[in-house]
Each structure stands twice: as structure tokens, then as C-alpha cells.
């Protein structure tokens, strides 16, 4: 396995710190809740349904691990919106989940631009809305320099890797997609000019015809995003469909075993 893949898999194989950094009172959230997220009332926080963990202080503000988990027997979650209150575009990503991912054990890396609450707002199969989150100390994640030069970006964009392993009685899939996910706030380190926003905005992952998950995203998902998730395999190949804001499309099918 290439070094960059090894590092990426290890980064998400390490659980996000579940320390005591609960959501903090947020005037920004008070403004966002209805006007941006469309919620007229504050959703309840209920760890019996799900939890969102993230580190108290990020080691890298451009690669903050966000980990969504559910206890066994929890209500199935059909949709989840990740909101990072203080990011320039607070709605970081919207997910839909298939039954094979229940109970959720789902991890992704996000950019965090300033000290902020990072919250997940979930909809259960019964139609209930529930929230979970953590307060994360990080800054500059959306403007952090890209990890490679523009020539390397052009050469590798759209490449994917898939890995599937048995772990503690469950199958864990890890999907990596090569894409710079430029936020529009970064500078080319050679020209010092701003790099236009260019990011993955649609992702769909299936096993055979069965949906695993979809993502509709903005600028907050990290460069070269990695998704790590538990799922119930059905033995069918894993198909991945990716679209970005420049109209580029990539499709790839992997053997289920990875």
C-alpha cells in the first residue's frame, strides 16, 4: 500500500477523542438554526439515539476527525446534516444512510475554521430530529494550504481506493478519494493567487443496488477525503459515483473484499 494511503487509513482508524468537550452556547447557532438549517425548535440531544465525537483541540484544523456513532438497538438514522457553526459555509455536508450502515459507526474528516461547535442533526426513520456535537478548538482549516502542488492535483484527481476489513465483529469499509476540495479561501503556494473553489459536491456509495450512503457537501470536507464506516455486507461489489463542482464525474467499482 502507498504511504499516503497507509497514513489516511490510520488517521481514521484511530477513534476521535471522546473527551468532555460538549456543545457550547452559540449565538451563531441561534441565527443559523432556523434561517440556514430550517429548524424552528432546538433539537434534543439524546445519546441513546446517536453521538458525535471530535477532539477538544485539533492537531490539524484542515483534517478534524468527526465520528458519528450509535448504540446497538438505537433508532435507525436516515439523514444527517453536519454543521460547523463558525465556518464560512456552516452546512458542511448532508448525508443519507442505507439500512446496511445501522447502527451508525461513520467517520469523516472536516475543516474547522475557528473555535466552533461541530454538530450533527439527525433524522430517524420515525421522523424524529435529534442533535449531537462537540466544541472544537481549531482555526484556519478552510484556508490551510493545499497538501500538494497543482500538477500533482491534476494528475491524481478522481483516483479512489477501497479497503474492507473485519473489526470487532463488524465489517469496516474505508473509501479514499483523491480530490483537493479547494475551499476558495486557499492560495497557490507558487503564484500566491487565490485558488477558486473546486470540491466534491455529490457522492453515492452502493453495494450492488443497495445504498450504503450519499453525501451532498460544501467546502468543509477535507482534501483527499476519507470515509470510514461500519456496514453489513451483502457480498456485492462496491460502486462509487463522484461529482464535483466543475462538472467532473468519476465512477469506480471495487470487489467487496477490497
Structure, explained:
The protein has one domain (3-254): Sandwich (Immunoglobulin-like), CATH 2.60.40. Helices cover 10% and strands 38% of the residues. With 258 residues, it is mainly beta. The strands form two sheets. Strands 7-6-3-4-11-10-13-14 form an eight-stranded antiparallel β-sheet, with no helix packed on it. A six-stranded antiparallel β-sheet has the order 1-2-5-12-9-8, with helices on one face.
Q: Keywords, please?
A:
258 residues, six-stranded antiparallel beta sheet, Immunoglobulin-like, globular, disordered N terminus, 10% helix
| CATH architectural arrangement | Sandwich
What's the gyration radius in Å?
A: 17 Å
What do we call the CATH topology? Answer: Immunoglobulin-like
So what's the overall shape?
A: globular
Name of the top-level CATH class: Mainly Beta
Q: Kindly, what is the distance between the CA atoms of the first and last residues, rounded to a whole number of angstroms?
A: 12 Å
Instruction: Characterize the main sheet.
Output: 8 strands, antiparallel
Strand order of the largest sheet: 7-6-3-4-11-10-13-14
Question: Which residue ranges are poorly predicted, with pLDDT under 50 across at least 5 consecutive positions?
Answer: 1-11, 13-18
Helical residue percent band: 10-25%
Amino acid at each position: 500500500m502507498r504511504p499516503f494511503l497507509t497514513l489516511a487509513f490510520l488517521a481514521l482508524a484511530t477513534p476521535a477523542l471522546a473527551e468532555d468537550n460538549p456543545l457550547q452556547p452559540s449565538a451563531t447557532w441561534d441565527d443559523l438554526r432556523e434561517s440556514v438549517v430550517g429548524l424552528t425548535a432546538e433539537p434534543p440531544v439524546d445519546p441513546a439515539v446517536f453521538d458525535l465525537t471530535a477532539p477538544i483541540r485539533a492537531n490539524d484544523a484542515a483534517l478534524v476527525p468527526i465520528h458519528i456513532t450509535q448504540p446497538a438497538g438505537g433508532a435507525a438514522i436516515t439523514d444527517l446534516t453536519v454543521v460547523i457553526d463558525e465556518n464560512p459555509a456552516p452546512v458542511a455536508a448532508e448525508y443519507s444512510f442505507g439500512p446496511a450502515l445501522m447502527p451508525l459507526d461513520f467517520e469523516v474528516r472536516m475543516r474547522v475554521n475557528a473555535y466552533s461547535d461541530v454538530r450533527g442533526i439527525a433524522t430517524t426513520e420515525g421522523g424524529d430530529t435529534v442533535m449531537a456535537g462537540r466544541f472544537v478548538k481549531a482555526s484556519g482549516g478552510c484556508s490551510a494550504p493545499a497538501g500538494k502542488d497543482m500538477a500533482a492535483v491534476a494528475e491524481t484527481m478522481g483516483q479512489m481506493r477501497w479497503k474492507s476489513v473485519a473489526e470487532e465483529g463488524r465489517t469496516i469499509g474505508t473509501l479514499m478519494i483523491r480530490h483537493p476540495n479547494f475551499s476558495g479561501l486557499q492560495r497557490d503556494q507558487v503564484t500566491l493567487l487565490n485558488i477558486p473553489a473546486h470540491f466534491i459536491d455529490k457522492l453515492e456509495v452502493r453495494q450492488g443496488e443497495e445504498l450504503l450512503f450519499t453525501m451532498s457537501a460544501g467546502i468543509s470536507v477535507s482534501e483527499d477525503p476519507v470515509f470510514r464506516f461500519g456496514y453489513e455486507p451483502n457480498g456485492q461489489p462496491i460502486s462509487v459515483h463522484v461529482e464535483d463542482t466543475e462538472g467532473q464525474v468519476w465512477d469506480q467499482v471495487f470487489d467487496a473484499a477490497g
